[in-house]
Write a structure and sequence with these properties.
With 232 residues, the chain is of the alpha+beta class. It contains 11 helices and 4 strands.
Length: 232
């Protein structure tokens, strides 16, 4: 069976660590289909904020088990990915370059943001055409999980209670480590522009989410980490 891989980078957002420190991340949309589904794959995500036409690549092997994913990554994580892929390829492959670091890069400069975003898309387009890169677990965790760099490295090294496949399949489902994580999520939820009854009655939301905490420790660890990364 052949796979058609569609990828694009879009939707830059400024994320704040605190009052003084901020960074920008980007949404990576990935869709994997068979050759017959290629045209349909272009319709899965609205493309009003896409930086370029969706790029499709056909492979002769099945590399992705998760059909559709959306994750957010910052530039420093792209730098980490390239370094890991280059190390793991044992210099058998010369990887494409990322957009150059600009010491004068401004989060509020629309042209600079657009240029970087296009460069990141070109980077993904090129590496996804290499079977050697496609077989690397770091790439799959980068594209289809919200694990942090340290968690991705630990997972690839077999030092986590979950496998790479479990990380890919489970990430994005809402689970919480503790009451603190639960309250932090509620705080973010109610600080948004939502005018739902759940914000007006946070106790209801707390009770509802608390019922979902009766999973195994390994699943809680994995899915809670994904949620933490989405909120960070």
């Amino acid at each position: 069976m052949q796979q058609v891989i569609s990828v694009w980078v879009r939707d830059p957002r400024i994320q704040k660590n605190d009052f003084w420190h901020a960074y920008m991340d980007y949404e990576i949309c990935l869709h994997v289909s068979t050759t017959a589904e290629k045209i349909v794959s272009l319709m899965l995500f609205p493309c009003s904020n896409c930086v370029a036409a969706v790029s499709c690549f056909q492979t002769n092997s099945v590399f992705f088990t998760k059909k559709t994913s959306r994750v957010r990554r910052r530039f420093s994580e792209f730098v980490w990915l390239r370094q890991k892929l280059q190390e793991n390829s044992l210099l058998l492959l010369q990887l494409p370059h990322l957009p150059p670091k600009n010491p004068f890069f401004s989060l509020n400069n629309a042209q600079q943001v657009a240029d970087r975003m296009k460069g990141l898309q070109r980077f993904l387009e090129k590496i996804l055409q290499s079977n050697l890169v496609l077989s690397d677990s770091c790439l799959h965790l980068f594209l289809q999980s919200q694990l942090s760099i340290s968690k991705m490295e630990a997972c690839v090294a077999g030092k986590t209670s979950f496998t790479v496949a479990q990380a890919v399949q489970s990430c994005g489902l809402r689970r919480f480590h503790s009451e603190e994580d639960l309250q932090r999520d509620l705080s973010v939820f109610c600080d948004s522009d939502s005018d739902s009854s759940e914000c007006r009655d946070p106790g209801h939301k707390t009770r509802e989410l608390t019922l979902n905490k009766s999973r195994s420790a390994a699943t809680l660890d994995l899915r809670g980490t994904c949620q933490e990364e989405m909120l960070s």
